Amino acid sequence: xxxxxxxxxxxxxxxxxxxxxxxxxxxxxxxxxxxxxxxxxxxxxxxxxxxxxxxxxxxxxxxxxxxxxxxxxxxxxxxxxxxxxxxxxxxxxxxxxxxxxxxxxxxxxxxxxxxxxxxxxxxxxxxxxxxxxxxxxxxxxxxxxxxxxxxxxxxxxxxxxxxxxxxxxxxxxxxxxxxxxxxxxxxxxxxxxxxxxxxxxxxxxxxxxxxxxxxxxxxxxxxxxxxxxxxxxxxxxxxxxxxxxxxxxxxxxxxxxxxxxxxxxxxxxxxxxxxxxxxxxxxxxxxxxxxxxxxxxxxxxxxxxxxxxxxxxxxxxxxxxxxxxxxxxxxxxxxxxxxxxxxxxxxxxxxxxxxxxxxxxxxxxxxxxxxxxxxxxxxxxxxxxxxxxxxxxxxxxxxxxxxxxxxxxxxxxxxxxxxxxxxxxxxxxxxxxxxxxxxxxxxxxxxxxxxxxxxxxxxxxxxxxxxxxxxxxxxxxxxxxxxxxxxxxxxxxxxxxxxxxxxxxxxxxxxxxxxxxxxxxxxxxxxxxxxxxxxxxxxxxxxxxxxxxxxxxxxxxxxxxxxxxxxxxxxxxxxxxxxxxxxxxxxxxxxxxxxxxxxxxxxxxxxxxxxxxxxxxxxxxxxxxxxxxxxxxxxxxxxxxxxxxxxxxxxxxx
Length: 654
Known about the structure:
Structural class: mainly alpha
Domain HTH luxR-type: 599-626
Keywords: Coiled coil, Membrane, Signal, Transmembrane, Transmembrane helix
GO molecular function: DNA binding
Mean pLDDT: 79
CATH class of the domain at 29-159: Mainly Alpha
Strand content: under 5%
Number of helices: 25
Number of strands: 0
Helix content: over 70%
Low-confidence stretches: 1-26, 648-654
Protein name: Tetratricopeptide repeat-containing protein
Distance between the termini: 142 Å
Transmembrane segments: 417-434
CATH architecture of the domain at 29-159: Alpha Horseshoe
C-alpha cells in the first residue's frame, strides 16, 4: 500500500511534464472547434490549423481520432503554397505518435517538419519545431540535447511578442533542471515560465506557471525540510493554480493538470501537516478524483483511492480501506486499456489490507492477481524498452547516416572546390592567352594609329603655321587700325574741347549782354520814378509807362534765356540748390544765387536787380535760412564752394 504513495509524487510530476503538450482539451473546447469547422467561407489555412487543434483536443478521449484529425490536416496542408502549415501538422503528429509508442514514426515526422519549416522561412514555425524537438529529446533520454533545442527555440522566437511556445519551453527547462537537482536554475526557469504566462493572460499558461513555481519550491523544500516557508510557497502556488481553474473552468483546456495539482496538494498536506489537516487533504482529493474521472486519468484516480484507503487504514477502518481500493480497481477496469502496473499496485494494496484483517485466503488471491498484473506490466515494460532501444538504435543509425552524409557532403564540397580550382585555373590560362593576343593586337593597332597620328600631326603643324602667319598679319592690321582710331579719337576730343570752350566764351558774352540789359532796365525804372515824382502828369504818361513795363518784360525774358544757358553750363546747379533748400527758393532767390556764384558784390546785385542794398541783405538772410546755413557761414563763400563741389557733368560738358 505504501509504495503507491511513495511513487505517486513522481507519477504526478512525470504526468504533468508529459501532459503539457498533449493538450487534453475540455469537451467545450472540442465543441467550439467543431463549430468553427462548420462555418462557411473558412479558408484552407484556417481549416488546417483548426483540425490540428482538434487533434490535440481529442488526444485524451481517443488517440486514434486525434491522429486521424491531424492526418487530415496534413493532407489538406500539402495543397497549400506556404509550407509552414504542413510543417506544423507534422510537428503535431510527433507528440501523437510518441504517445502511441511509435517513436520511429515520431522522429520521421520531426525530420520532415524541420525540412518544411526551413523551406517556408517562417521563424516562428521553426521556433515551434525546435521546441517539439526538445520535447521529444527530453522523453527519449536526451536531456542535454533537449536543453540545446529549447534554447534554440527561445532564440528564434524572442522577436515574436506573445510567442505561444515560450511558456512551454520554460516549463520543460524547469522540469529538466529539476531532474538534475539544480534547484536554482529550476527556479529561474519556473519564474520565467510564470512571467511569460502572465504576459499572455491565458488561463492554461497561468496554471502551468503557478504549477512550475510550486514544483520549484517543493524541490527546494525537499532539499531542506527545515525551511517550512518553502513548503508554504509551494502550497500557495498550487492553490493559486486551482483558483485560476475554478474562476475559468470553461476556458481551461489542461483540466488534467489541475487534477494532478490537487492530488499533489493533498499529498503535501497529508505528508507534512498534522492529522487535523485531514479535511483539507480530503478536499483536494475530491477535486483530483472528480477531474481525474472526467479526464480519464488512471494514475490520478488510482492515487486518490490509494490515499483515501491509507487514511482509512490509519484510522483502523480496514473494511473502508478495502472498499476504497476495490472502488479504485473498478474505476480502472472501466478504461478500454487499464494500466497493468496500477492494477498490480492496487492488488498489492488489497492483499496488504486483507492480510491485516486476517483474511489470508483473500490476501493470497490478491497476491496472485498482483503477480499476474505485474507480469503483464513487466512484459509491457520490456516491450516499451525494446521499442525505445529500437528507436534509439534507429536514431543513432540515422545520426550515423547523417554523419556519413555530412562527411560525404564535405568530401563532395572539397572535391567541388578542387574542380572549381581547376576550372578557375583553366579560365585564368585562357584569359591570359586571350589577354596576350589582345595585347599584341592592341599594340599593332596602336602602332598603326601612332603612325597615322604622326602623319596627321605633320599636316596639322603645317596648317597651324599657315594660320599663325595669317593671325600675325591680322594682328598687325588690327594694330594699325587701332592706332588710326586713337588718332581720330584724339582729334575728335580736341575738337569737342574747342567747341566747349567756344560755347563757354559765347555764354560769357551773353551773360555780359544780360547784365547790360538789366542796367538798361534799372535806368528805365529810375526814369519812370523821376517822371512819377513830377506832379504834373502828362496825358501820354500812361503809354510811356506801359512801354517801359513791356521793355522790362522783354528784359526778364532775356534773363530767363540767360538762366537757361547758365543751367546748360551747370545742369545740376539749380536742381541741387532746390533739393538743399527743400524746393523753397523763388525765381528771385535763384537769380540772386546765380549773381553771387559769378562773383558780383552786393552793390552790383542791388544795381542789377534795381533794389536797395538793404533789400539784398534781407534776401541773403532769407536764402541762408532756406538753405539751413549757420549764422557764421557766409552765403558768398558757401555758394562758391557749392559750385566747385558740383562741377559740370559729362553730358553738360558735351
